[in-house]
Amino acid sequence: MTEEVEPGAGACGDEAQAWRARFGWAVGLLSDDLAERAAALAHLDKAKRNVWDALDRFNDVWQLTRPLGAEEQYREPVFRRAREAYSDACEHSLPEGLCHRPRGADITVWPGLPYALLFLEWEARHPEEWTRHAKAWGTKEALIRDVAVADHDATVKAKLTDLIEVVVQRAYRCKDREYVRVARAVDSEDLRGRLGKAAQSDDPWARCQAGYVLWLLDRPEVPNTRHVWRTWIAAPSGS
User: Fold this and answer.
1) Among 46, 100, 191, 231, which residue's CB has the most CB atoms within a 10 Å radius?
2) DSSP state letters, 52-89
3) Does one domain contain both 76 and 166?
4) Could you report the per-residue pLDDT of 170-222, keeping only the tens digit for each?
5) pTM for the full predicted model
6) Cα dist. 12→30, 156, 208 in Å?
7) Are 65 and 133 in the same domain?
8) How far apart are the first and last CA of the chain?
9) What are the start-end ranges of the E strands in 178-231?
10) For the chain, how many structural domains are there in total?
């Protein structure tokens, strides 16, 4: 059995419950039980079909009501229902349901935070399944940037530390470099110890990537740019 996702500290109980009702099934995406993971993937595929079907209906209604003009079109009941149906379908699918966090809201108390972390962990631990069923590099990048703050509670910091450790030990994937932001936000003796161990491993990716993150943690003034990353790749011992 997989562990139940808990809401972030301070999350509104009703909102957290609503998120759990929509995405409780997603916990299975991280299960070690292949049957449980397959069931979660099937649920996701059905949710995505619902999104595509709702979008097709919305586009059809949009074309039919377009002659009304923009203002009248948006007041037309059939148009509004189609738009609401599409929005509702998105709220039950990944990553669509994670894409509308209110700007400026505190990520640490956002009820969707456990599922944002789940989405990132799924990509880190099961990249092939993530790519096949829910590939969204822009969403991955946005979520990594969103969670890269220093004032998470201890449970979330521990999960982010685990996530960084997983990511640096695999072959580089699109947007992985963004995890430097997270490492800088949750920097700790524990994280540095794990990175140091990875940097001494036999795996060339782990040595390179963990070493890069450690090098930047010691140099907060150095930007995490593509140029800096490429320079590190060319001379992984740093300078």
Assistant:
1) 191
2) HHHHHHHHHHHHHHGGG-HHHHHH-HHHHHHHHHHHHH
3) no
4) 999 999 999 999 999 999 999 999 999 999 999 999 999 999 999 999 999 99
5) 0.90
6) 25, 17, 41
7) yes
8) 47
9) none
10) 2
